[in-house]
What we know:
Layout: H1 2-18, E1 19-23, E2 26-29, H2 30-36, H3 44-66, H4 73-98, H5 105-114, E3 125-133, H6 136-148, H7 151-158, E4 164-174, H8 181-189, E5 199-200, E6 206-215, H9 223-253
Antiparallel strand pairs: 1-2, 3-4, 3-6, 5-6
Amino acid sequence: MSLIILLTNCSKEEKQKSYLAKVNDSYLTREELASLVDTSNLNASEKNSLIRDWIYNEVLYQKAMDEGITEDENFDKILQNSYRNLAIALLIQKVYNETEVEFKTSDLLAYYKKNKNYFIRPDDTYLINQARFKDELTAIKFREIALESDWEKAKQFFENKNSVEFIESGNLKALYEIYPLEVADAVRYLLADEISIVIRDNQMSYNVVQLVKKIPAYELFPFEVIQREVEKRYIAEQKSKHFENFLKELYSKSEIIIKERY
């Protein structure tokens, strides 16, 4: 028993030394924040927003405990129902995750031709490559290599550097989906295959963006541009069909009786 108390006290002391936020005796550490959401691509403002949300929830939770909410019989009923729903959700997730979908490019192309309306958007869409850096010098060097060779070679050379926040290729986005706003404004005026100058944003990061192609509103995306999205949709539909068959099989193997109502 004394060992358990010692370990508990050590754990609490460790939290007290390295916490991001605290509400009375409850602490939020970096590890706990990372377990709630992937923080690797979040900026400081987004992380602060997550911390504020945790504080609000913790304040409310502690108040609920003080009010004896968890002792109410309705709480237990809701908890049992949530328990069932969580078990169902995890089973569905398990079935989807374990379903392997095999396909060829010809399967994707046939799906693309059959479902063209999925691959038309009501806004101008931009196929872009985007990189973001912590310092200007690295951003300048990246841009120089991208101009001298190509984006992918520059990406391979820089993607493991400490000063890189992210380097992405082949993103399809409307202007309102491009972040930060300074980059979106630059994309608006780029020509096909043109690489921007280094752009400093209001978070003091340095961005380089390349416009690969602009697809006008209501124009069908070329297959080679949209292939990754076609693949994702195709796989999702195949997994959905597999789950429907899985559910039908369960239904057929179960003893199910539906009595006349009332």
